Amino acid sequence: MQRVRGIFPGRRKFGLAVMAISLGMSGLLAGGAARAASAGASQPVHGGTLNWIVTPEPASFIPLTTTAGTNAELGPKVVEGLLTYDNDLNPLPLLATEWKISEDGLRYTFTLRKGVKWHDGKDFTSADVAFSILTLKQVHPRGRAIFSNVTEVQTPDAHTAIVVLSKPAPYLLTALAGAESPIVPKHLYEGTDIVANKYNSSPVGTGPFVFKEWVKGSHIVLERNPNYWNQPRPYLDKIIVRFIPDAVARSAALESGSADLAGQAIPLSDVKRFSDMPHLRVDTINWPYISVHQQLFFNLDTPALQDKKVRQAIAQAIDVNALNKVVWYGYGTPSAAAIGKASTKYHNADIPFFKTDIKQAVQLLDEAGLKPNADGTRLTLRLLYNPFQERRAADFVRQSLSRIGIDAVIENYDFATYVKKAYTDRAFDITLEALANIFDPTVGVQRVFWSKNFKVGLPFSNAAHYVNPEVDRLLEAAAIEVDENKRRQQFLDFQEIVHEDIPSIEFGANPQITVVAKKVKDYAPTGEGLRGSFADLYIAE
Amino acid sequence: MSSTSYRLGAALRKTLWQAVPTVVGIVILNFLLLQMLPGDAVDVIAAESGSATQETMAQLRAHFGLDVSMPQQLWNYLSNLLHFDLGNSPRHNMPVTTLIGTRIGNTLLLMITALGLAFVLGVLLGLIMAVRVGRWPDRILSVLSLLLYSTPSFWLGLMAIVLFSVKLGWFPTGGNITIGAGLSGWAYLLDVVRHLTLPALAMAGFYVAIFSRLTRSAMLEVSRQDYVRTAWAKGVGPVAVNLRHILRNALIPVTTVAGLHFGTLLGGAVVIEVVFSWPGLGRLALESVLSRDYSVLMGILFLSSLLVVFVNMLTDVLHAWLDPRIQPR
């Protein structure tokens, strides 16, 4: 039996002074203590409002029927998951205090936290967990795959939930964060149309903050949950989530101090300026739970690109480290492997970048029979890019390819058109994509390279139309491998083969820019980053 | 007096009768144009989620009624419209009427303030320019209005934010009220005014230029008319001549243009609302385009066309009142 015993997720010891403050001493004393504390190691204090900019405004609040990024950021503040994770994605207790996995990997036994209540006062029990997991299996876009092997969830008592699988699912334990698998109240969801349930937008959860109001197109207000199980958390009185669509307006709000925290809010060209501001801090952490990743996919249905020499020539013309310097202002984390560096367990660090060599690239094109025409052009390609990427990355690629006589014509679309062009019409030759690794390669990486996931019309499937039986075998084996060492080796081998075949050129993690007021502390103590619960967040003023 | 009200009534009936086919045509045209956009709401929802399956997509399409044929969708939409039902938003999972209802007040407040501001300022500046024609107030104001005319409103807005919000801290950077302040009474009103000032001014800028130039030229034109000369000869004071005889008649082209620009103003609201994070219809429209939320977009377009038709009606009636010679045709 693997046995993991949970410890309290908190990070700090509490001094007597802070205990006194948390018990509600006068504001004057609180201020004095905070100032004293900020001189040395900072101690959490109660009170204050966090003005948080979230972009763009999501359609619903909790990530139950969608996995859109902003739902995943908002949801965990109100609705929690069973577990949370450290920066190596090792699980830590949240709603579950202990978990056991049977040796064959088919039974997950969770011991649930006692004394937890939903925001409407009802008790949280194992029935809620069973209902949530089976619901996620039906309605959550990713949950359908993650929980597909779940045959039943047993609830022998109110504080034990046993998830029973037909096949092992080694990624399951990493999929239980509030941002990915929210545990929702059975009594408010049972027997309703889950997709249309109003609690998706006005949630009732067990989390540190209680949902107050959502004025569409303007803001959301969350208030402190006074009965939170993890006292003295949360420290904040209130969270105001603001939706500011314009980048300059977001910059202005941060600069003027009317907003305290924002992820991906400012243009990269502003990072330097913001780093120099006395009241702000800029963090560039790529949190492993999301693990953003960018790459360039070849459309292997394009005849010219079926020749590996052409793909290699293109790979040798693009200097990824230069791209990081020029396009990403040096804030990115380049990775030559298909699994990025944030995935400390599975990233293959031995894979080198393609050596930038124009001469050799040109020679490869010659060998492939692509002769230059009168104006020196050997090949014309349609270059698409996911609008969530910097347009400048496409410019960079175009520029790089022009050096070897390839004319990459950039086609510029809004998000919906891009998705249709790339995945339904397949009207591209090369495309710059931003497909995150997510918390596990089986979940985030397999979808892109697995031949059985070449599905016309399905966004973010196997865009390259890459088929390699050995890669399929490794991915399918890793998806059910219980032995962690074997699984790791399978992923390392997989990355080698993909690098050899070049269905894609991997760029690695684009910059993750979080701007935060210096007074805001501990906003992201877990591997989920901004998708954590903010229970530990406090304002030192 | 009764002849005035008869003329006003006739003008109203006439335009109302013309409005009905216009609005129906707009609705059908909107529908067809939007059908030509690539991608639908489900594509976007699926794409945003990043890992949808084909089953979920089919399930969602059926749920939103997107799996039936295009003429059937149009028929459904029109028959819903007859029952004053604008449909449901697939994205927000709520009735379009509710969604628009929460926004329209904000947009109208912003537009009417901006248009009112532009009208008052524009006419005032035009009056000064016309009275002082060729002299330094005219010259300076002419250059100023040319500058305003050629400055895009979003740039004006951004610069206003940088100067008045970030550097000086006089006004908030965006939004329509201080969230979570729970104000009421005068404090609330003052708060709204503080939030309204910059976007309304930025939006008004361009129209101030138009109205002032127009007022100036119209007044100069009218001042050469015989009846103005008669008035001067009779010994009527300069204030009365300028205001009652010249300005009143000069207002006809100005109000015509103001009415025409109402539609443009609605379009301009998109930009200003995005820049100032103003929770209005313009922003909702933009977001709906990006997320292919057609029912919301059609609701907004329908409502906007009603608004524009209504304002044009108002302009006609206003003309009938301003100039007794104008007869309804």
Protein described:
The complex is a heterodimer of chains A (541) and B (329). With 541 residues, chain A is of the alpha+beta class. Helix content of chain A is 28%, strand content 19%. Chain A contains 18 helices and 22 strands. In chain A, the strands form 5 sheets. Chain A has a 7-stranded mixed sheet. In chain A, strands 15-19-14-18-16-17 form a 6-stranded mixed sheet. Chain A has a 5-stranded antiparallel sheet with strand order 1-5-6-8-7, covered by helices on one side. The two termini of chain A are 48 Å apart. The relative contact order of chain A is 0.15. With 329 residues, chain B is mostly helical. In chain B, strands 1-2 form a two-stranded antiparallel ribbon. Chain B is globular and about 85 Å long. Chain B starts with a helix and ends in a 7-residue tail after the last helix.
Brief synopsis:
The complex is a heterodimer of chains A (541) and B (329). Chain A is an alpha+beta fold and 541 residues long.
- Please state the structural category of chain A: alpha+beta
Helix percent of chain B reads over 70%
Low-confidence stretches of chain B: none
Strand content of chain B: under 5%
Quaternary class: heterodimer
Largest beta-sheet characterization of chain A: 7 strands, mixed
List the helices and strands and how they pair.
The complex is a heterodimer of chains A (541) and B (329).
Chain A: E1 2-5, H1 16-22, H2 27-39, E2 49-53, H3 69-74, E3 83-85, E4 91-93, E5 96-101, E6 107-112, H4 126-139, H5 143-146, E7 150-157, E8 160-165, H6 186-189, E9 209-215, E10 219-224, E11 238-242, H7 247-255, E12 261-263, H8 271-275, E13 280-283, E14 294-298, H9 303-306, H10 308-317, H11 320-326, E15 333-334, H12 358-367, E16 379-385, H13 391-402, E17 406-411, H14 415-424, E18 430-433, H15 441-444, H16 446-449, H17 469-479, H18 484-501, E19 504-509, E20 514-517, E21 520-521, E22 538-539
Parallel strand pairs in A: 2-11, 2-12, 16-17, 16-18
Antiparallel strand pairs in A: 1-5, 3-4, 5-6, 6-8, 7-8, 9-10, 10-11, 12-20, 13-20, 14-18, 14-19, 15-19, 21-22
Chain B: H1 2-35, H2 41-49, H3 54-64, H4 70-82, E1 88-89, E2 94-95, H5 96-131, H6 136-150, H7 153-167, H8 185-222, H9 226-234, H10 238-275, H11 281-290, H12 294-322
Antiparallel strand pairs in B: 1-2
Helix pairs in contact in B: 1-12, 5-6, 5-8, 5-10, 5-12, 6-8, 7-8, 7-10, 8-10, 9-10, 10-11, 10-12, 11-12
